[in-house]
Write a structure and sequence with these properties.
Keywords: Membrane, Transmembrane, Transmembrane helix. By secondary structure, the protein is mostly helical. It is 68% helix and 0% strand.
Length: 107
Amino acid sequence: MFRFILRLIGFLLIAAGFVGFVVDGSRSIAAGEITYAPLGQILFQLMPGLFPMLEPAVTRHIHPALWDPVLLTILLWPAALVAFVLGLLLLWLGRKPAEPIGYLTEK
């Protein structure tokens, strides 16, 4: 069941990443230059009340160094690329384990 959920979320993220690539591509064609929507902008549009509390929560409860070099950099990356890579990672984690080679199966 857990593998199914990982794979389902992975496929949904890959689909969202593909849609994001299409939207960013059409915006780039319309603008005449390469443009993309950063992950931070998308998250702010989805959660306008919750997103501003993310920085204080991370710096106070986890570690201040996690916010500035790590999460701040990821929030500036293209949202489509982050969704696509995260979806691939979840698909990889939800894959069926390989059967061992060289062992006899008991009947």
